[in-house]
Amino acid sequence: MDHMVVGGSKELSLGDSNDFERQSNLSLSDRLKVFKSSQFDLDAFINSKCRRMAEKELKYLTMYLKDLKKASAEEMRKSVYANYSAFIRTAKEISALEGQLLSLRNLLSAQAAVVHGLADGVHVNSLSPGVQGPSDEELSNNKNSEVTKIETWLNEFLESLEVLLAERRVEEALAALDEAERVVEDANDRGSLKTTMLISLQNAITASRLKLADQLVETVSQSSTKGAERRAVVLISILADVDTRRSVTGYVFTLGGSVLHHTIQILKPAATLSVNPGAAYCTSLSQLVFSTIAQASSDSLAVFGEDTSYTSELVTWAVKETENLGVLVRRQLLTQSAASGNLRAAAHCVQICLGHCALLESQGLSLSPVLLKDFKPLVEQALSANLRRIEQNCAALASSDNWSLTPPSGGGVSQSRLSSSANRFNSMVQDLFEDVEPLETLQLRTPLLEGLVHVFHSYVNTLISAFPASVTEAIQDGLGPSIVKVAETEAQQLALLANALLLSDEFLPRAAAKMLPFNQINRNEEPSRKDIDRQHRVAEQRDWKKRLQKSVDRLRDSFCRQHALELIFTNDGELRLTAHLYTRLDGYAEEPEWFPSSIFQELYMRLSQIAALASEIFVGRERFATLLLIRLTETVILWISDDQTFWEEIEQGTKPLGPYGLQQFYLDMEFVMLFASQGRFLSRNLQQVAKNIIARAIDAVSATGIDPYSSLPEDEWFAEVAQIALKMLTGKANFGNEDREAVSPAASASGRSLTSAFSHGSLTSTNLKSHSSLFSQNMAYQLMFILLTFSIFYPEFVKSISSPPCNSNDLTALHKFKAAISLDTSGRLQKWVGRRCCDWEGIVCKNTTYRVTEINLPGLISTEDFIGQTKMEGVLSPSIMRLTSLEVLDLGGLVSLSGNIPKSVGFHLVNLTKLNLFGNNLSGPIPESIGKLIKLEEIQLQENRFLASIPSSIGSLRNLQRLFLYSNRLSGFMPDTISNLVNLVTLDLHDNALDGLIPEKIGALSSLKALDLSNNRLTGAIPASVNNLTAISTAYFDTNFLQGQIPFPVNPGDMPSLGFLRLQNNQLTGNIPSTFGYLSSLRRLSLANNKLEGPLPSSFGDLSKLSELYLDGNRLSETIPESIGKLSNLILLNLSHNFIQGPLPQEMSTLNNLQILDLSFNLLTLQSIPKWLAELPSLSRILLAGCRIQGEFPEVLRATPSALQELDLSDNSLTGSIPAWVGKLTELYSLNLSRNSLISDIPDTITNLHDLGIIDLHSNNLTGSVEKVFELETRFSGGSLTYVDLSDNSFSSGHEGIGIGSQTGIQLLNLSNNLLKNGLPTSIGKMGSLKTLDFSSNQLTSALPESLGDASLLEILKLQRNHFNGNIPNGYLKLKKLRELDLSDNLLKGQIPIGKPLSGFPSSSYSGNRDLCGKPLPPCKI
To answer: Coiled-coil region(s) at which residues (predicted)?
Structure first.
């Protein structure tokens, strides 16, 4: 290594990168030695480096020097801060000593002057207050007496001042000093005192002032010192000289701090006793602190001016008091808010403090960074708690989700639709962003977006668990069923994908855009800089969306995997796609009938179904639908390509692949590529994989010594056969000539077997007729006798042989219908044999013509002995159009019947009166020609997959009485012609995608009794003509985008039969019409989740038949009308989430049939639950969350006439303890007392609640043991409890019994933020249903239990901020479903067990464990 000397100092070599690395390992002082030398020559150093270094080495040198500069600056900064407080302390001590020395010098000088003056015989005028000075004539005669008076006055003055100070009579002491000043000034004006005497008196007064100040400084820290005394020192300092001010340097700050701390102590008890200190306490506290700092700043400026040393001390003191404020706010407010996840309260508190703090900036005090440093961790904790709450709610939301898509709340007229759990998830995320947005200064964007990615990942995991395959795997693994509702149908499964896609692609980025600072670019920046920042932020947002998209891709892959496995395996787990499928073909003597293998037919049909569904669900996102189809197809084909067992049997099996097997292989791959190409989801990867499969199959045949190419037909043959197969599977094949195309390469005559069979059947019939004419007369008599006998004992047999054959055209049509059905679980079609079709089950013929008039083959079979659901698989054959006499076609509820309604149906089935095809898998549009079927009285096409719009020709069906089109995929407008159906009794179009306006003339349907337009996308106002629906009894308009006011009723007698009215989940505005009382037949009314406002109309009292009233989620205000007490039949009343005020009317006490009452989250001022409410004889579910109930637990609930099943008193101001009599509520299922101020222990009697499933007591002040919760008596296997949240209390024990008793079916257990000690019990591994376990922020010790690894369903485990020690058990590797883990801030040690899932978590999951090592932490030291 090359060494050189620069400026007489030996310099370490800095050559290549290795040299720099070695230099970096030295201490900072060693690296700076060369630059600190007095002989260091900068020019020589630079020149020497530039001459001998290459460009790369110079870059290393530049980087090294820059890093050295930063490290040196940081070291200097730390040194200044470290010694700053010591410097201030020393300066204060020196200043205090200077003041004491000056006071001593002045006192000695004053006393010497007095003594000297007395010795010279000086005369003083009027030294005593209120005494007139002697005249000039008397002065010369009274010198001796004046000297005596001066001595006497001075002694009395000093003695009285000492007394005043000792007794803390500050005002009198100041008055005495002021009087002495006036005496001196008067004597000076009159010239009655000599100069020496005057000076001596002034010095004595000054010394007395200093002594007064010193004594006040000594007593200032005492809490009994009065405010006037404190202010006195400032006054003295202002009047004194500069030297005097130095003696009271620290007093101003001591003064402010003393006042501040004393006042805070007064505020503390009020804050502690308050249920929710919130904004009021925070406002008082921050205003007090910063006003005190402002006053101290003003006093300091008045006393010390702009002296930098005093200003520096002021800043230090202000920072200290601000830090104290931060500590106090954290303890009293933010800690609880952060622990409970009350981000909104925490944000409000932070804003208040920062607002008061900002007022000091005008005085040069910028204290905001101090508060931000203190508040940010707790706000981040509250943010994390909110994110955790959203995550924890995912499973609960999904458990009740039916996976039907509805428009998102507040979504306007967007075409995007989400299921209920995704809607709620989106709503919670939007609320979270609204809470965080005002806290821009805290820079929460990164943790929020990171947390959101994690929460979304968790929600996607929940969606994945809703797939049937996930449930099956869980059951097979012995994990038990999931609490997530299973998405059984393909539409529901695609809804899972739609949830994730819309959230990641639209709703979450829209919310996150508020946090991405696109609008915060400095306007003064250069345009180029703005462009760079904008590009950076666009890239940042794109990366964040990609992370969300990865979760969506996981969900998509799970969907494809499930459907691929359903195709590849049977329900019993047997493999369908085996090599035997191809190797067996060469074992037959005859050439097989060429058609794609059944598994690829099913793949095509499934892809077609998914494509049809996806086209409706993923509107505007067709690319995702295409990628989904691509991925599903590739999953199946890749399985063939990658399955080693499959290819080992093909290539090395006992039965080799032959020419026929190869030909079938080729045909299957051609078929896949053909339908993928026609469906526009053929990818290059799929093409390549299919080609590789064919090539490998060809090689396998070649290995047997057979030339594969000589036995394979031309490529055109494969394309032709695949195309024919597609047409046949879609029902588009042309069978008009009853000829079947030959699909064999040999084009054998057997391809016409269908025609031959029918011809042969016709010939046989003719022969039978001619043969019967040869019977003799005797034989005829004998036959008549036999028939007579059989007619008595076997009438059905006689009927069967006596009825003539049906029309040949009809017979052919029915045979083709049967041929198109591949599976009939009822067995009815198996009995369709022979030519007498009129006797077949499900067929009715006309007696005179023997034409088929009815086909009755419903899926639900009901007899005296049997009721069961059957199904048919296959296609609705177009041959049914030949049944031109058909009047009734009932194929409803067959489940799997697919295909389309032929376009020409209206030109053939002209006699049809009933068309029932509901509950199948039919698709395509409803043909326009249906309007030609003018005899139709009933159409039931519901629960299929019909597309496009409702044909306008339907208005021509004047005889139509019932029209059911619900649960399809119909879109477009409702045709105006529908108002022509004057005989229509029932119109049900719900659960489609209809948009536009409701026809204005819908009121013309005068016979209409039932109308259901719910769950569509209808917009605009409800037509006023609905008042003309005089026969209407049921009207459902809910879950649309309807706007405007409710237009009915107008007059008495309007809609007199209306019994059921649903208008919820729209955007209706205005007041509830006061005329609602006209609807006298109303039994159930729902106006929930609109924008209705104003009071509840008193006319509600006229709805005497009303049993259910839903008005929740609006903006209704004022008080509940007294007339509500007239609703004697009312069973359910939900007024939650409104702005209803005041007490409850006494008249409600007459609601004797009321069972469910929800008044949660209004502006009610209940204070306590009225006695009459608890005495309602039928009330079993009481929900009064957020109703401002105060005091102890309501005693009125102790003995209710009806057993309580649900009680929600959360978010109130309850105090005291939970009473023991709660244990008498033995039928209680749900108990929510969270977010109150309850204290004491959980009563022992809670063990009597044997039906309790949900208990939520979080965020109270409960203490003692929790063991009684887990000792509930139960009659259920695994216990009754499923949800237990006891977090954010002060429980100290009882967790040791978890898993020992019968309550082992708990799915969520949260005991975080308590005072629990000892360790986790080993019995916790018996909680076989546990999915979420949170014991964070306790005082738990000992080692982690190995048995916890047996909780195999565990998904979330949080044990952070405890004192766990020892190693992490290897058994935790069995927690395969674990997706969130936090063991941080414990005393764990040793190596983290290697393997998933433990190695896959971030390092933050294990941080704060000093002796823990291994992935993802740094490696363990050997």
So the answer is: 163-190
